[in-house]
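hey can u run this one w/ zinc ion bound, need the structure tokens asap thx
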Amino acid sequence: MTTKAKFCPHCGETLSETAGPFCNQCGASLMELDTGINCHRCQGLIQDTDLYCRHCQHFTSSDA
Ligand SMILES: [Zn+2]
Ligand SMILES: [Zn+2]
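ok here u go:
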């Protein structure tokens, strides 16, 4: 799967289809890795360092 994130998982910025591998807002990597944790809302794979779910934009830190 090479699905690209629609939101920056770090700053929550909405990303365009043409966005590169890094957020143009905060510089965070947008690449989806094979390992991580599951979003509490959509069960999508996210990184435990992510603040926002890259799939549903749920604010993951509020679950900690
Ligand atoms: Zn960002
Ligand atoms: Zn989610």
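The longest strand covers residues 37-38. anyway lmk if its weird
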